[in-house]
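FIELD: query
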Amino acid sequence: MRFITVIVPTVLSLAASCHAWTQAADGTWIANNNYYWIRGVHAHEACTRRNTEDIIEAGPCAYWYNSNGGIYRGTYYILTK
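FIELD: result
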């Protein structure tokens, strides 16, 4: 019983701090298909620097679009007024 009481909190604490980015074989970093509000901008996770809240205004992006390993690769632009 002591083993379970140590393992469960450890697993939960590690899961809470996992990052969504993974690196493909060609070196491209791939984000999850999530949107976040960052300093008033509704930004896609692929439009940020990996593991930060720094928004990149334009450039290549890649993100998972399904649970079967499908990856969208394209270019994004953040339009501002």
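FIELD: remark
Confidence is low (pLDDT under 50) at residues 12-17.
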